[in-house]
């Protein structure tokens, strides 16, 4: 005979002789709920990350933290394993594997670039011209870039760079400086032909064609769409990225503050079109560039992410990549040594 004990989840089982054998513990439903609640947020994140579009303004703000979500997602398999919920364990392993597949390849270097003349690119966001010009000129002397792209270049900062001697190192320039955050510029060691700037929402992205060491042209863009910090800037950000030139037909280098990571669909579209990210190619794709200084949003500290990139089209190979600290800005400068393989 079976008699209830009065305790939830417990039942007394009678032995064949009629004496009670003790309680049988039924599966605890709350444990299953906990296991699935641990898996669910990461599953949703993985699905949204795999969608080939930036599905919502808030998602644009979140998706840049996918490397952190991938790392945190290992909690799901651990909870499922400890609680012996095998279906939840299988699901959580699939989710973690999907997120890992999105981010781990960035830590693996591709084959080294072949021969051809070198082109060295340095890019820095000046934080509304706050970077001391002598500090930036010293970095140029140390790294010997052939091309320097700048974002948030103000007229005062441009004048300060001239006074600090940038012209002796990089004598040719395209100055699209303006007050505030929307200015940009390109300084180069080689002759340059200014192009039509991409100007959307008050953010000017300077363009120029540089005569490279092999005598053939390379188009350079100092990338800086507006930041999607607020919803009314979302379209400006999206349009600024969409306006970047296609990699087809010419050798091109996009260098600057994209205000986006490799997890944003619009940046993934650039890669699908044929651009290569220098950090990704060299296995440095998880190296973060912003915010270098403490930065808060709605009272919360922001984990560092990778907003600054050097991207190259076909005909331009990547040999090396590094990031460098520049004073008085919340961005780290990015530097890439490129190889010109075709034109």
UniProtKB/TrEMBL annotation:
Pfam families, sorted: Exo_endo_phos (PF03372)
Keywords: Endonuclease, Hydrolase, Membrane, Nuclease, Transmembrane, Transmembrane helix
UniProt-recorded Gene Ontology molecular function terms: endonuclease activity
Domain Endonuclease/exonuclease/phosphatase: 135-331
Residues annotated as transmembrane: 30-48, 60-80, 86-104
Name listed for the protein in its UniProt record: Endonuclease
Location of the region described as Disordered in the Swiss-Prot/TrEMBL record: 1-23
